[in-house]
Design a protein that fits this description.
Elements: H1 2-24, H2 60-67, H3 71-107, H4 113-144, H5 147-160
Length: about 180
Amino acid sequence: MRKSLLIVAVLSVLSSLTVAALAQTAPPAPPSGPVGVRADYVRPVPCILPTLKIISAQMVPMLAARLSLSEADKAKVLDLLTKSDNDIKPKIENQVKAAQDYTTLLANPKASQAELVAAADKAMKAESEVLMVRIQALFTLKALLNEEQNKQLAEYLDQFAKPWRERPGSIPLPPVAPPATPAK
């Protein structure tokens, strides 16, 4: 009994000291830069169109496994997607810059509606340019594949492009409750 009282007393003293120490710490400094926008965390508003991020040189091992590519085909696909990645890199940089400009302008209280619309239009055009390069790479990739591989690619793209797909091992949501009836 004495040990448990001693343990409780020690824990309460430690928790009191911890709370007191945390209360004395200074609040974090306000972020620097234009209205606190951190450029490294700014991402463009997602498009409702699938962005085809799997059409990339980084995804060649996965594509090779899914599509049963031979070593020669794998090398051709790697060359194609590496060239596409090099073509798309400046467009992605433009997209990120346009999105950062738009986000900065959103936080600016002196920005006019016309400026905001122009910045949003610039960001959407930059996103469209990225998507067009990826679509071009997709069709060039399809030209390299045979009919069965194109069918497998289409199935994979369909699966990849559905943001609402269930993840393996996810817990199903409970059924929707019936509408509430007013109390009498």
